[in-house]
Design goal:
mainly alpha; 95 residues; 3-stranded antiparallel beta sheet; 49% helix; Arc Repressor Mutant, subunit A
Length: 95
Amino acid sequence: MIEDLGVWKLMHEHTSKMLREKLKQIIKQEGLRTTLFAHSAYFQSIKISELVEMYEMPEDQVRSIICRMILSNEAQPQLHASIDQPTGTIVPLHQ
């Protein structure tokens, strides 16, 4: 849907392409964050590799997002979970 917006035709092709790619990355990141916040109470664990595949993002980027969510400051909601390094899974800390 975003690709079909008419506004892209009003921009220089190079600028349009850069903005669309950046927007895709932001949507993927926010989709990952939303999924973890909304559904962490419903799973016992989830493999990071599954999230990498689901969101088509590099593993280091997925891990970075998850770590920031776990270590979040007061300005943003915190993900109550831990990462099990040997198995590469996120384990929610159910309260």
